[in-house]
Design brief:
43% of the residues lie in helices and 18% in strands. It has 793 residues and is α/β, with parallel strands linked by helices. The strands form eight sheets. Strands 14-15-16-13-12-17-18-32-26-25 form a ten-stranded mixed β-sheet, with helices on both faces. Helix 25 runs parallel beside helix 26. The longest helix has 29 residues. Bound molecules: 1,4-dihydronicotinamide adenine dinucleotide. 1,4-dihydronicotinamide adenine dinucleotide binds next to helix 9, helix 10 and helix 13.
């Protein structure tokens, strides 16, 4: 008998293999003869062109099954099936739809082991993750949305479903992404055509069978498999009303462009390069465990992975030491083994991409450390990797690697931490570690990201919206805000299209520079300024009467206005009460000048409309003063030891192209919700009557609106929209105009992927409070940030 101590025994204790039995899932594959068609109209259909592709097991590289490759004709068949199913699905009572979603949740739970194994076989993620994270969240999503289906008519009164929804999902959380997409779409009364990722189609196909098992009406959910060309065909299909996409930023851009000329509603959940910020007072052992979840969950193939470690300089050395010790203990290997921490990378191409980026990191001079772990000889594996000595501008600090690679940097002050955290084109998530609640929340509020986890990471729940800022996309999934992505106000659907207003699209004639300066100026940074071009244009009413001269704003003027707006960003931190006071003051000042403003306006829109615009304009100022401190966030109670505080945050700097037809009321209806929300605005006033600018800035000037919060640049909308769309420091663009102008705005914003909200060329009735004011506008004026905070027992 050897005389080893207990401590010694613990140290040398080895895990035995603990493989999960895949027999059930393999049997299912065999029952399908390892060949799958599309699921269209409730039936399995072979691909029109009889073309298949292979899906493989990443842990061995071996083929699992043949999968139908969807052609445009297959997509068309699926869209037609979804369209045909729509009336019957929508005619069901909300309770009946709720029962279907509930049944799906139950069915997922009943088949949870089968689904978890199938997911792991197809994706390579450790069974512990698919079993304990993915599949329970899938069920939770259907339960939660069964609830929204039940409450739809009361909670979303006056709204209708978008119609047929095209949903394109990635390979990192295959079934979870099905749930994130399908559950809210069905709850809202849409029908769906789903395109799973080519690497991981199997669980989506198994889900189609669950739809059959619960007798979901045929055509409500259709699954068309294939690659990017299949996805592109779905995006391009004219009879699809909305596209919901999760995947790479590059494809997100292509989809933004491809949908610009249509009325398709769009939500994009794209990439990330999320910061994981550790302060000197953090519990370092917890932070290390957080990192294991943050960057090695799913081999780092997670859009919100904490891939940039930002450490306070004073604890950097000890944190790195602890981290390296923990990395050495991570078990990399067979995904079906219940003891595996890090499984296989989804495909060879992804493995090569990761390896290539790591090589670039080394070439750039960062120090690369990997634990001494033996990788399986077959399959696609990559060791946990840590870069230190990373330059913030380097490739490994800026590019989404989508692999088990962590890039570490240091900071000295909270301000520097925030600066580094925000030094990215993305804005999906962040994790902040500090024992000081003040520091953690102070930093969380300043990080530009849709989700911030305090002393935690990678927590998700169906009730808490998830989605990005900046190039991480727009729209949210989960919760009330996720439901909004699949609904539209009924009145909007019924609104007619604007007819091309004569002259509004034409370049205004240039006036003789000698004649200028009789009337209004640009309003930038709280000052009246001349246009950079030195030109003005004549403003005439429909009878051709010359009313005055408006400055012809250009690219330089917009740039100046953007700079002024960015300097005024403290408006977003003014209290809601302060913002309300300013709006009330503006209402008072407009009231005092109402006769004069109405008289000016009457020369263009007639006395009756002018009087109505002024009266309702004052009312609208009151309305947004009222809203300023009433459109508040929510506290979610997810089923964890956390609360999630959903904050409504200002978006930042927003460009607004105002409607031509209602020069005063249209301007106020669009600009005020943004200003009430704490945004700074660059507004291009009515093309029909840009002279309204003069009356407006006189009101704002006398109402304590801080300089730069509202900037007004007159000129030709189709030229100025281009500058606003392409300007990287304009965070969102609201464009009201004819169809072609709206399409232009969407197309031009594809480069920087800013949020663009348009009237889709429709005529909105700003004289109606229902259409012209309220939550519909505020929903677009804010973006939701969920801050998760540990709480409770
Ligand atoms: P991807 O963006 O190409 O694929 C995502 C989905 O979009 C798949 O279903 C694909 O078939 C489809 N798709 C591809 N091109 C399309 C097009 N033109 N129109 C419509 N649908 C299209 O992502 P991929 O190639 O699988 O991965 C490449 C990189 O993207 C990864 O290395 C990673 O950095 C990033 N990525 C990010 C994800 C995220 O959740 N943020 C998810 C997957 C990938």
């Amino acid at each position: 008998m050897t005389n080893t101590s207990v401590a010694e025994k613990f140290r040398c204790m080895e895990y035995g293999a603990a493989p999960e039995d895949p027999a059930n899932s393999l049997r299912w594959l065999d029952e399908h003869r390892r060949r799958f068609g599309h699921y269209i109209g409730g039936k399995w259909k072979p691909p029109g062109q009889r073309r298949y592709f292979e899906t493989a097991d990443p842990s061995t590289g071996e083929k699992i099954a043949d999968i139908a490759k969807g052609s445009a004709a297959d997509v068309n068949a699926a869209v037609r099936a979804a369209r045909a199913a729509l009336p019957r699905w929508q005619a069901l009572a909300p309770h009946a739809r709720a029962r279907f979603l509930y049944a799906l949740a139950r069915q997922v739970q009943k088949h949870s082991r089968f689904l978890a194994v199938l997911e792991t076989l197809d994706n390579g993620k450790p069974i512990r993750e698919s079993r304990d994270i993915d599949i329970p969240l899938v069920a939770r999503h259907f339960y939660h949305h069964a609830g929204w289906a039940q409450l739809l008519e009361r909670e979303f009164a006056g709204h209708c479903a978008c119609g047929v929804v095209g949903q394109i999902i990635p390979w990192n959380f295959p079934l979870l992404m099905v749930a994130w997409k399908v559950a809210p779409a069905l709850a809202a009364g849409n029908t769906v055509v789903l395109k799973p990722a080519e690497f991981t189609p199997l669980t989506a196909l198994a889900f189609a069978e669950l739809c059959e098992e619960v007798s979901l009406p045929p055509g409500v959910v259709n699954v068309v498999t294939g690659d990017g060309t299949t996805g592109a065909a779905l995006v391009a299909h004219p009879d699809v009303d909305k596209i919901a996409f999760t995947g790479s930023t590059e494809v997100g851009r292509a989809i933004r462009r491809a949908t610009a000329d249509s009325h398709k509603k769009l939500s994009l959940e794209l990439g990330g390069k999320s910061p994981f910020v550790v302060f000197e007072d953090a519990d370092l052992d917890s932070a290390v465990e957080g990192l294991v979840d943050g960057i090695w969950l799913n081999q780092g193939q997670v859009c919100c992975a904490g891939s940039r470690l930002l450490m306070h300089e004073s604890i950097a050395a000890s944190l790195v030491k602890k981290l390296q010790a923990r990395m050495s203990a991570l078990r990399v290997g067979a995904p079906l083994d219940k003891n595996t921490d890090v499984g296989a990378i989804v495909a060879r191409v992804q493995l090569e991409r990761i390896a290539g980026l790591v090589r670039q990191g080394v070439a750039e001079g960062a120090s690369c450390w990997q634990p001494d772990v033996a990788l399986p000889t077959k399959g696609f594996y990559y060791p946990p990797t840590l870069f230190t000595n990373v330059h913030p501008a380097s490739v490994v600090a800026q590019t989404e690697i989508f692999g088990p690679v962590l890039a570490a940097m240091t900071f000295r002050t909270p301000a520097e931490a925030v600066e580094l955290a925000n030094n990215t084109a993305y804005g999906l998530a962040a994790s902040v570690w500090s024992e000081s609640i003040n520091v953690a929340l102070h930093v969380a509020a300043q990080v530009k990201a849709g989700v911030v986890w305090v002393n935690s990471t990678n927590l998700f729940d169906a009730a808490c919206g998830f989605g990005g800022y900046r190039q991480s996309g727009f729209g949210r999934e989960g919760g009330r805000e996720g439901m909004r992505e699949y609904l539209e106000p009924i009145w909007l659907r019924k609104a007619s299209l604007l007819r091309a207003a004569p002259g509004s699209q034409r370049r205004p004639p240039r006036a003789d520079p000698a004649l200028i300066d009789r009337t209004v100026k640009l309003y930038i940074g709280g000052k009246q300024v001349r246009p950079d071009s030195g030109y003005s244009f004549e403003c005439r009413n429909v009878k051709g009467v010359l009313l005055g001269q408006a400055p012809l704003g250009n690219r330089k003027d917009i740039r100046n206005a953007v700079e002024a707006a960015r300097r005024a960003q403290q408006w977003s931190t003014a209290t809601a009460h302060q913002r309300a006071q300013v709006l009330y003051y503006a209402a008072e000042n407009l009231t005092q000048r109402s006769a004069e403003v109405a008289a000016h306006l009457a020369t263009v829109v007639g006395r009756k409309q002018a009087a109505d615009e002024v009266r309702l304009g004052i009312e609208r100022l009151f309305a947004y003063a009222a809203w300023a401190d009433k459109y508040e966030g929510t506290v979610h109670s997810p089923p964890f030891r956390n609360i999630s505080v959903a904050m409504n945050e200002a978006i930042g700097t927003v460009g607004v192209i105002c409607p031509a037809q209602t020069p005063l009321l249209g301007f106020l209806s669009l600009v005020l919700p943004l200003v009430a929300a704490g945004n700074c605005v660059i507004a291009v006033p009515s093309a029909a009557y840009p002279l309204v600018a003069g009356d407006l800035y006189q009101v704002f000037d006398t109402s304590d609106v801080p300089g730069g919060v509202i900037n007004i640049v007159t000129g030709h909308p189709s030229e100025l929209v281009e500058v606003l769309a392409e300007h990287d420091d304009v965070d969102a663009l609201w464009c009201y105009g004819e169809e072609s102008l709206c399409a232009h705005a969407k197309r031009l914003s594809a480069g920087n992927l800013k949020q663009v909200w348009t009237n889709e060329g429709r005529r909105l009735n700003f004289f109606s409070a229902l259409q012209g004011e309220g939550r519909w506008y505020l929903d677009h004026a804010f973006q939701v940030k969920n801050i998760w905070v540990p709480y409770g027992e």
